Amino acid sequence: MKITVIGAGNVGATTALMLAQQQLAKEVVVVDILEGIPEGKSLDMLQSGPVHGSDTFVRGTTDYNETANSDIIVMTAGLARKPGMSRDDLLAANTKIVKDAIGSASAKSPNAIIVVVSNPLDVMTYVALKVSKFPHKRVFGMAGILDTARLRAFIAMELNVSVRDISAMVLGGHGDTMVPLPRLTTVGGIPIGNLMPQERVDAIMQRTRGGGAEIVKFLKTGSAYYAPAAAAAEMVDSIVKDRKRILPCCAYLTGEYGEKDIYMGVPVVLGRGGAERILEMPLNDEEKALFKKSIDHVRGTIAKANI
Ligand code: APR
User: Fold this and answer.
1) Chain Cα centroid distance, residue 113
2) Cα 136 to the chain's mean position, in Å?
3) What are phi and psi for residue 164, nearest 5 degrees?
4) In angstroms, what is the span from residue 65 Cα to ligand 1's centroid?
5) Which alpha helices (DSSP H) does the chain contain, by range?
6) 66: Cβ below 6 Å to ligand 1?
7) Is the pLDDT of residue 307 over 90?
8) What is the reported pLDDT for 82?
9) Which ligand 1 atom is nearest residue 87's CA?
10) Counting beta carbons within 10 angstroms of the beta carbon of residue 49, is it exposed (0 to 12), middle (13 to 18) or buried (19 or more)?
């Protein structure tokens, strides 16, 4: 197993380290345009291997030739948000970066699975599909695991219970229009509405929607990366080990949920074949309306992108 991580910044480097620590590949190649950064960080990561007992070979480069024949490409390159910016404010700059980077990487690894992390996520994943011309099951994005992880963390803090027993579902785009589903969010199988008043449920859902912005406001110079990297690594784990986990991912719709030719956060079976299947479930009228709003927003952003 060979995995390429595009981008040696905060998200890329943290993802590469997690992949190495979890020994999910024999070789992890980190590629960036900045001379020296991928090489230096990768050497540092490689030297952590003996300490945590990992034989994964981490290598940094600015040359896409070294990424050839990767099984998985994790795309993290791109600008990150600054305070006051929405993910959509990154559209023009990151469209260009995704086009360049995925163009180069997909040509060298025609059989790879691409996991996109760059924002605005739903649109950047669409760009990656168009540029790579890969089958859509091999191109998808990381968002739902991060959004549900934020939701689970907030619920665990509120109820003073283990995150392990909290199961959550978030649909829709990765942004202000995401659709957290409180009725499918459970603690030890009990819907959260039975464990806290409705106003606390609403407040936690709202905090989840703004979870990324809350961190950007603190950091000032960039956006979140520990949880995004952990979420990307969880997707890679399910692919590499063919676990067929059901994870909320940004997947290409071909009629599911009544929509097509768009990427949206939906429950996906993730395995060696990539986004192998999308699970559909009935939505109530309110959820349908929110999902549609999210679809319209992402379609509008795709129209603005120079794909
Ligand atoms: N090819 C390869 N790497 C590139 C390219 C390119 N064409 N353009 C930029 N990069 C690299 C930068 O050199 C930098 O090292 O992408 C990296 C981005 O790192 P950071 O600025 O630290 O940003 P990060 O926090 O990692 O976020 C990256 O992930 O979560 C999303 O919204 C976030 O879009 C952002 C992306």
Assistant:
1) 13
2) 16
3) -65, -30
4) 20
5) 10-21, 37-46, 49-52, 91-108, 121-132, 144-159, 198-209, 211-219, 226-240, 285-304
6) no
7) no
8) 87
9) 32
10) middle
Judge contact between 215 and 109, C-beta under 8 A: no
Pocket test for ligand 1, best of 6, 17, 29, 32 (most atoms within 8 A of CB): 32
Residue nearest to atom 31 of ligand 1 (CA): 118
Encode pLDDT of 53-63 as tens digits. Answer: 999 999 999 99
Cα–Cα distance, 160 to 163 (Å, whole number): 9
Structural domains in the chain, CATH included, are 2-141 (3.40.50.720)
User: Which tens digits make up the pLDDT trace of 184-236?
Assistant: 999 999 999 999 999 999 999 999 999 999 999 999 999 999 999 999 999 99
Query: What would the mean pLDDT of 83-97 be, rounded to a whole number?
Result: 93
Count of all residues that appear for the chain in the document: 307
Asked whether the beta carbons of 234 and 243 are under 8 A apart, the reply is no
Q: Is 136 a catalytic residue?
A: no
Q: Is the pTM of this model over 0.85?
A: yes
Phi, psi of 113 (to 5 degrees): -100, 135
100 close to ligand 1 (CB < 6 Angstrom): yes
pLDDT over 90 at 306, yes or no: no
